[in-house]
Design brief:
The structure holds 2 protein chains of 2 kinds. Chain A contains 11 helices and 10 strands. Chain A is an alpha/beta fold. Chain A has a single domain, classed as 3-Layer(aba) Sandwich (Rossmann fold), CATH 3.40.50. In chain A, β5 and β6 form a beta hairpin. In chain A, α1 packs across α6 and α4 packs across α5. Chain A is globular. Chain B is an alpha+beta fold. Chain B has 3 helices and 4 strands, in the order βαββαβα. The radius of gyration of chain B is 12 Å and the shape is globular. Classes of the chains: A alpha/beta, B alpha+beta. At the A-B interface, α1 and α8 of A face α1 and α2 of B. Bound molecules: thiamine diphosphate and iron/sulfur cluster (3 copies). Thiamine diphosphate (TPP) binds next to α3 and β5 of chain A.
Chain lengths: ~270, ~70
């Protein structure tokens, strides 16, 4: 496929560091859109703030770069005003689950027809490596120089518990799975979430002595376990492992149906 | 080896991360001083893993049969 067709080439090369996985996720999104044959003009790509949230700037869709943590609020407005748009939100772990954590769980609960792709690099990359809600316990960050005392959120489990209709997780190394999950999520009616684990060598890898992008992706390659297999493993055996797979795939009435019902009732004056 | 695969590297977008060099299953690339070098093109199977994993849109794998098909 021709990736360049979907890019704003005058904005390239992108700002992401060497070995950052964000570009690998962007490519997967473009491959999925290309495979679905969607017109660029029928897609709205929305983000908040962060390295990951720079994604829409490079893509020749309808794009909206909003405020930190608030992409879902803007995206919800877009989807309700123009339900024909395919609305995709891209977000970092900080954007999605720290400042935007409330928007995230409530969008899932409401089941608004939006696909959210979360670039989880366990850190606030853009601002120099502060802890995020997904930083694993004991890992170092600029705001946790002695190690993070908090337990992390599991984004996929959080989305599942909050009511999302499709939830899946992959790493950037496992591109085949990533394409599959993003493709499924784009086609799903309702709130769909794909969490992609992606290396941030600059703000996370370096501080935690995990090496460069290649080293961090090699770790993904060697330490990933499918969700089915993980079910039969003990917590000790799963320590340090990455569990990937489809967490939720269900049918559920989307918010737009219910919203239309409200409009009908209001207009009929009942 | 797949016939006539063309590997194009856009050096002005490449950031020398070495992801392509490290993960090509056929070890087609060597790392040069700044950019990957297509050292063993005859080994390339056209699997496109390097193209998919390059975060910088700097690799293009062209398989002539495919371009014919889509036209
Ligand atoms: C209201 C507000 N608070 C804080 C910031 C500073 N800020 C910019 S990006 C960011 C965190 C980004 O982390 P994440 O969402 O995980 O994305 P990444 O950069 O790692 O891709 C923060 C705190 C801001 N821009 N706006
Ligand atoms: S700081 Fe981290 S997340 Fe941001 S571009 Fe660099 S590697 Fe990527
Ligand atoms: S297409 Fe596959 S075999 Fe050829 S260089 Fe790329 S990764 Fe290696
Ligand atoms: S993966 Fe891409 S950016 Fe990295 S060294 Fe290879 S061509 Fe350059």
């Amino acid at each position: 496929m021709d990736y360049l067709y979907y890019l704003r080439q005058d904005k390239m090369p992108h700002i992401w560091c060497d070995g950052c996985g964000h570009g690998i996720i962007l490519k997967s999104i473009l491959r999925c859109v290309d495979k679905l044959g969607w017109d660029k003009n029928d897609i709205a790509l929305v983000s908040g703030i962060g390295c990951s949230s720079r994604t829409p700037g490079y893509v020749d869709f309808n794009t909206l770069h909003t405020t930190h943590g608030r992409a879902l609020a803007f995206a919800t407005g877009l989807k309700i005003a123009n339900p024909k748009l395919h609305v995709i939100v891209v977000s970092g772990d900080g954007d999605a689950t720290a400042i935007g954590g409330n928007h995230f769980i409530h969008a899932a609960r409401r089941n608004i027809d939006i696909t959210m792709i979360i670039y989880n690099n366990y850190i606030y990359g853009m601002t120099g490596g502060q802890v995020s809600p997904t930083t694993p316990a004991h890992k170092k960050a600029s705001t946790a120089p002695y190690g993070n005392p908090d337990e992390p959120f599991d984004i996929s489990r959080l989305a599942q518990a909050a009511g999302a209709t499709y939830v899946a997780r992959s790493t950037v190394y496992h591109v085949g799975k990533m394409d599959n999950y993003i493709g499924n999520a784009l086609q799903k009616t309702g709130f769909s979430v794909v969490e992609i684990l992606t290396p941030c060598p600059t703000s996370y890898g370096r501080r935690n002595k995990e090496g460069n992008g290649v080293d961090m992706m090699r770790y993904q390659k060697e330490n990933t376990i499918g969700i089915e297999k993980a079910k039969n493993m003990s917590a000790e055996a799963l320590a340090g492992k990455i569990v990937t797979g489809v967490f939720v795939d269900k049918e559920q009435e989307s918010y737009l149906n219910r919203y239309n019902e409200v409009i009908k009732k209001a207009q009929s004056g009942v | 080896m797949k016939k006539n695969v063309v590997i194009k590297i856009n050096e002005s977008w490449c950031k020398s991360c070495e992801i392509c060099v490290s993960f090509c299953p056929k070890k087609v690339y060597d790392m040069g001083q700044f950019y990957p070098i297509v050292a063993r093109p005859e080994e390339c199977t056209g699997c496109k893993l390097c193209e998919k994993l390059c975060p910088d849109f700097a690799i293009q794998i062209i398989i002539p049969e495919e371009t014919k098909k889509t036209k």
